[in-house]
Protein 1
Amino acid sequence: MEKVVIAEKLKLFSEYWSPKIVGELNGQHVKLAKFRGEFVWHKHDDEDEMFLVLEGVLKMELRDKTIVIHKNEFLIVPKGTEHRPVAENEVSVMLFEPATTLNTGDTESDLTKHVLDSI
Amino acid sequence: MEKVVIAEKLKLFSEYWSPKIVGELNGQHVKLAKFRGEFVWHKHDDEDEMFLVLEGVLKMELRDKTIVIHKNEFLIVPKGTEHRPVAENEVSVMLFEPATTLNTGDTESDLTKHVLDSI
């Protein structure tokens, strides 16, 4: 059992939209990711998804509004809700979601990551 | 759907060892808690537990070692592992654990909270 130092893990990767697994508990993954630009619209039919902003500003576009999430704020996107993360500048986030969650949900795209690295 | 501003939630309570529910996803609770002093030794037979330190320093005593967790670091304590959180000064933490998790695990004490408030 070892603690995880988030800042050290964030130094280990630079690619955007490619979550890395940094912890697992109760069938859930704790992931770190860096976002920049616009992701694809998608939803997760069976999984709620949590975005905790560590650095930067994340805009979560929903079909009816946009929620701006700053450092030390989080948003839980319920299952079945279409959403699109947008980051004008680089943002670092921590994600909590079931181990089964695919990053692009029901929208297969070039951004889809079927296999995630653990770091 | 609304974002959660962690700093604002932390202002809403001051009692120690009394986790507050600030989010729920996939059967898991996101909780905020403030610790100060020594908790009781306990374990959770069926639940892994995650401690993310937001402010202060948390010492997690295990039977064979102590892990010191600083701000922006986290520790996952696996199910069945005896542990005791200790905070010499006030520490604020975010917890992730199944909705079924009892704060003192298998050790009933004055510190046991059977019902948690949502804030």
Protein 2
Amino acid sequence: MAEDAPLDEELIAESPANEEARPDDRIDDERHDEDNILKPEFVRRVTDALDEGDKQAVYELVEPLHEADIADLIELLERDERRQLVTAITDLMSSDVIAHLNDFVREDMLEALPASAVAEIAGELETDDAVQLIEDMDEADQRAVLAELEPEDRAAIESALSYPEETAGRLMNREFVAVPEHLTVGDLIDFLRTGEDLPSEFYEIFVVDEKHHPVGTCQLSWILTTPRQVALADVMKRDQTLIAANLDQEEVGNMFQKYGLISAAVVDASGRLVGQLTVDDVVHIIAEEAGEDVLRLSGAGEGDINEPIQRTIRGRMGWLFINLWTAIAAAAVIAAFEGTIQRIAALAAIMTIVSGMGGNAGTQTMAVVVRALATNQLTSSNTWRMITRELTIALANGFGLGLFMAIGCMAVYHDPKLAAVLWGAMVVESVTAGLAGVLIPVTMDRFGIDPAHTSTVFVTTMTDVIGFFSFLGLATLFLM
Amino acid sequence: MAEDAPLDEELIAESPANEEARPDDRIDDERHDEDNILKPEFVRRVTDALDEGDKQAVYELVEPLHEADIADLIELLERDERRQLVTAITDLMSSDVIAHLNDFVREDMLEALPASAVAEIAGELETDDAVQLIEDMDEADQRAVLAELEPEDRAAIESALSYPEETAGRLMNREFVAVPEHLTVGDLIDFLRTGEDLPSEFYEIFVVDEKHHPVGTCQLSWILTTPRQVALADVMKRDQTLIAANLDQEEVGNMFQKYGLISAAVVDASGRLVGQLTVDDVVHIIAEEAGEDVLRLSGAGEGDINEPIQRTIRGRMGWLFINLWTAIAAAAVIAAFEGTIQRIAALAAIMTIVSGMGGNAGTQTMAVVVRALATNQLTSSNTWRMITRELTIALANGFGLGLFMAIGCMAVYHDPKLAAVLWGAMVVESVTAGLAGVLIPVTMDRFGIDPAHTSTVFVTTMTDVIGFFSFLGLATLFLM
């Protein structure tokens, strides 16, 4: 067998096998349940040991866990228990554990540390994780930490911070493998075996021209399955997805999903290769962005259960306060019909059915539209189709459910005119809900405003006001 | 330079570079806008050419597009235009385009094809994509297509179909690279260069024992950076995340996210390696599962804009119908206080503010809890903390917003007793909303019922009924 390069003992010692060797323990073991959640009994064993001050026992319990599980464990504990735990397992608190921690929990823990200690952690992290660690600090703390960093790390982090928040430039990793086009597969393998400044893991080799512009890309599997003497130019794929450094992270996620990317080259405005994004960094963005919509539509802000409670209260109360005005507007409509209600008190009960149905129908449509906008399924090319589609659905629902309610109303109140008014109001309300549910988020999106964040208030106002107005208005016209 | 293997012309001819070589065209070009969405002008050019019956022009427009963009284009067109387009670009309709298509659009198009044509497409797809293609067909069609398949493909698909829907076994790919432990890095590279049954792309080599149980895993980058004579056993990582074939896909997504996986081994009940999952197959699951919650909480079903409209109407109407009963229950509460409302008609307006605020507050809490359950952040270890947290938030919001409304009520109605009743009702309502928002989804989840699917109805019922009851009840007690 041919030998390509001398045996390098150091390289072996540093190989991930020896760093992380641990028995496999991730399937339904004594620590995890079948959904891979830490079992409450295990968490209790840790907290009991903490209560008894038995650091040795704590350490032995935590030691076999994966970094991500240690982070989970810290999050599951009460605030004061967290600090006790961290003190007991200091040398297990690797930068990987810190990178896995929830933002709020990490922030809370870092606040207790001096800048030099934070800088030490940041220096150990990959650029993207270090940026995440530092970007949320206030400016003074940020500057203190940056000052403590090695010049190289500081330059990398400062360059990342120069891109706007939530863009590819913030997320990307500055460590990647880029080689010139003239190499053969063999040259490349030799370079990789001797190269020192390589990232610890990579999935793709970028081929660049002399101006550092990407000209092609090689999956590692193509290199491993190709003979040494083949030119890289013949193996690489010239057609590659390039990501602009200032692209919004939601669109980065959409591109990774759409093209099934594992990693991708990030280029600056002049087309130079400046970094790479790997899917493991993008996957939590994809999940976050998709999960965010439900939180934003319901006004729950970031909806993070680890957020400091004062901040959560402020955020939620702010949203409820805005919505109170919606409710007040709707109440004003009702108050305008006080005379009608005084004469037919039954209307007060029935009107809430109309507005309730409208609110639910509007929310349905809005949820569909917001998701379709976020996933780029709804574009200006098919907006009109979407509107007619939702209008059809609204008419079907309005007539169908309205008929049902009209029959029910007849059965209870024996008043055909009241039943007809209810039916009419429900059709009007259903159409209002359907149209508001499409048009409001689409309009917001067209103006560059996040539809998930803003649509609910307007849709609710529309359905409440029109619901009460159409029902009480028709009742005043035909029943008084 | 050492030569490891003879130059293999065939291998080069088959390399991805030559198959897919195309100029890079994915950043802000004439076809895509800055969010990587197909521009409406481009879509119009295609539909205009279709209208004119100019197949050549259609073909030239579509040819430079990536498979995922061709799929997007098809989805953006009207139903009859879709068929015209597909006829114009038959030889661009690769299996990759079909794999990228929306389920409903694909189903609609496949219905027009005979079983043999579907089988031909399925045979070209990777197992996981073929399964996706076939699993939604009715059983007779499924059997017809399976009968037309090559025995090997059929066996693979049938084995996938033997796992429950939405599990790792359905998603996994049966093509992967597994080698015995005694190899060196050099042996492995030689095997890969000559091996014929290799998947076209892979990111990880699985090392297995003689019973085909996984014992370790090697990232390709580790192999490429390690000298040939090093034993695989010294490079591989023994600690790997194994995925049980019957694990639910949502949990698969959580594991990929949590551990930052690129690919992972799937094992059957006896621990044998039966397949691999790669992150590009999991990433759309992660996005779907996270995005699903907003659709389920709002009762929008799958919320797919390509779903046949009759099915959408049925789904949405069903949800609204169930919610009508909630509204009827609330209306019944109001009707019970008809006498009170008849005397003080203003109550009819004010009561909707109380229930509206409660509905919003309940939705906020519910959204946070449902997401926290889905992402495994909320477990039985921290449920109690979550309950006290939400109770605190609810009390703060109830007292704060209630005070604001009481002051407003005084200003409008000059009735301190009415203001006090409103304040009291808002505190009761806020606490009800907060507790229902946590306890209902948590209870559903504990009983193995999808909390996103079922919580809204119960939370709304609670907030509506308690909102009206507390306000009208207190009003009857203190104002009459």
Protein 3
Amino acid sequence: MVHLSIKKTIAIIGAGPCGLSQLLAFKQAEQDQLVELVCFERQAEWGGLWQYTALTGTDSCGEPIHSSMYRQLWSNGPKEVLEYVDYTFEQHFGVSIPSYPPRAVLYDYITGRAKAGDIRKFIQFRTAVRSVDFDDNTKKFHVTIEDLTNQLTKYLTFDHVIVASGHYTIPNMPDFEGISKFPGRLLHSHDYRGADEFVNKNLLIIGSSYSAEDIAMQCYKFGARSITISYRSCPMSFRWPDRIKEVPLLQKIEGRTAYFKDGTNVDNLDCIIVCTGYRHNHSYMAENLRFRTVGNLYVPPSLYKGIFWYAEPQLAYLGMQNQLYTLNMFDIQAALVRDVFLGYVTLPDDKSQKQRQKNISEWQAREQTLSLDDHEAFSDLQTDYIRDIVSCCDQNTVPKFDLERSNAGMYRFFQDKRDNILTYRDQPFHSIFFPDKEAPISETPWIKNTDDSIEGFLQSIKTV
Amino acid sequence: MVHLSIKKTIAIIGAGPCGLSQLLAFKQAEQDQLVELVCFERQAEWGGLWQYTALTGTDSCGEPIHSSMYRQLWSNGPKEVLEYVDYTFEQHFGVSIPSYPPRAVLYDYITGRAKAGDIRKFIQFRTAVRSVDFDDNTKKFHVTIEDLTNQLTKYLTFDHVIVASGHYTIPNMPDFEGISKFPGRLLHSHDYRGADEFVNKNLLIIGSSYSAEDIAMQCYKFGARSITISYRSCPMSFRWPDRIKEVPLLQKIEGRTAYFKDGTNVDNLDCIIVCTGYRHNHSYMAENLRFRTVGNLYVPPSLYKGIFWYAEPQLAYLGMQNQLYTLNMFDIQAALVRDVFLGYVTLPDDKSQKQRQKNISEWQAREQTLSLDDHEAFSDLQTDYIRDIVSCCDQNTVPKFDLERSNAGMYRFFQDKRDNILTYRDQPFHSIFFPDKEAPISETPWIKNTDDSIEGFLQSIKTV
């Protein structure tokens, strides 16, 4: 390990899961007086999108509401494939818990590790980053922040900037003929907060990815009258229960009637929920530093190793991938960022950026060959990606886990969903770290469970 | 009249009612080759907040939805006190119409005059202004715009900038204990689109101004089960019908129960509609040019004659007032802006800005003496304000109307509302221009009228 003689100043933007992983990764270096860390968080609390608020639109500081979280959201993948290597669910809750926990459990777990790690002191809450620019002469970043509580603007300078502000906030909102005149309720999944208001209603859901699937299932669970899901390219094709059907792309809306590409239509719609995903929006980054992408890709363009800004590797972006892996992948990304920024490992010298571009292109080429509905292939891709960044890290400190076992867990999860979309969340998984250990199951199957509190969840665990 | 020898370049931001008034005011000057006009409009159509869209949140270009308009909105003041001097409702529709028209009628009227005036050619639609800065040396404005359709950024220079981008878009969202955990539907009036979804629901409405009153009445009309209106300082105190009551300020929300300052509470709430107004947000303006205000005032600070930026009168803001008068006031503001920018009249020479500041302070002092519930006094204030700006204009071209008669119309409108909040919209007013002419009435009283189309409205006119 090469230790540095002067402190590096490091700004992290966002105290969601990625920002928290990054703070923890740097913590030892901070104790060793190697870095001066600050994390700017626009919200009043940490946890990023895992924080629920009933609010939509604008908050009391006039800032856009960040979270797209809704009541009664349960994990849509087994907890075993996202568990932190250094902080297990069992360690946090004191008991082994079922594989698919509700939101509050995940929030408590993520922020529980952050509390245990004593990193709250680095975070400036209610602080929005307004601009980030890079000075090529001094090789420093100029960062403008706004203290929202006191309405003060401050101008700061850093050696490194790490963008961890997420990409599930700004709705991607396609246009459909007549939709702006729809006389019922129309919302994007970003503003969906719970199924209660859709009981006994006829819903149209537009989209064919995780939001569409999960919101459809939640509205089904709580008693929507009918749910029509419209897909653009590729249906999800689960064995949908009665009251749910999938149809091709919406062509137009006239009154309360929707017309689809196959010539069919649905009448008497009460509500349209547009689940067409989110846009990357890093508009506070100077144009020459701004990560842009159309859609949500497993291999983000312009980011070397999926992390470092191709033209200026003093700048990193965390978690910009479409994600199958989440918390554990963020930890590994954060480890590599730390190792590179502190000089523990070095990226190839590449002033012409050619090697970096070539590496990005190779990964992009692989993604482009994959069929959209081949979930296993995307899991292989992201598993290999993680293996690659693990191999770049300082091997003494990188958090490692058995990637083959994780990938096998992903495969089983996909199969469980294909087998039965109503029951996949009731399945217990084996721990990645302790393969003999299987999660307990809940007394109440997910489809009947309307208690998403931590207490309710823990009490529901079936004792053997 | 002093005519100028070179063309002035003028940018108008926004093609809502104010921007359209301004384009029409400049039109003659454009024909005379005195000005080069361009109006930037972020939306795909003109008419500003009068354009209805079912969308909330973000549009298909990723821009925030501008309008706070809802279905079944009817004018909440008599059309006679807003009518254009040079283009009457009767002229537009070919018949005399009742005093309180629905949205579509007003939209058709406003945009009808714009069409007749052939000003569409000046407007660049789907174009967002990203920054406005002023160069003290060249005395020119640098304006950055984004062509949203083609995703192109352009850098332009102008002699004058006129901000007409409105101030009913960014919600003012106060915080209340527990509100972010409310398990029902929570929305700001900006996102309210119609009463249908609130039929048979128990509503809490927070606010005591026009939005609160109108949304409460609309939800009442369409069949909300109960409506509780919570005020901060001053109740509206109309003779509310059954199912509507007013209570003091909300203290906290626990579950579906709201607790108020007088110790009372309301249970089983399905929905909270926050009607606490809007914030001025002109964040694309450089800080030294940016109009800011806390709240919505009849006398906007920093604007000389309620229009010209105190420190740099080459910059104008239109319609930044809290408004009793609207369309006709915008026309007069636009006339003064034209007269000043083209040198037809001159503002007092005031390099130290002292005279301008003094004038603003005098008007502010008058506003500050007024009691919030003294509507007549605010009408007097705005009437006097309009009289003042009329007196500043070129008297040969300023659109004039009888201000005493208009003010008397305001008084009667306030009294009608106090007499009966359910029937005030059924009252016919006399024309300001032709005082012997009284508006017809509708066959269907407003409280029973659920047809807000132009056709329905015109057909409903009672023939004598």
